[in-house]
């Protein structure tokens, strides 16, 4: 009887660890597939991206100009 209890506990804990490991790997894969390819430092060869970054946002400038007038 004691042997059956130990074996069933061992099997249950092994399955639990395996499932936890599987689901953690799946969640890590999901996090890696986010569509962030060029966040942070733009490549010097990417002319369009560098142009967009250098232009900046024009809304704050227009808002500031309107408030000044």
TrEMBL record:
Sequence intervals crossing the membrane: 6-24
Statement: the UniProt record of this protein carries the keyword Transmembrane: yes
Protein's recorded name: YbyB
Keywords carried by this UniProt record: Membrane, Transmembrane, Transmembrane helix
Region (Disordered): 32-58
Top-rank lineage group of the source organism: Bacteria
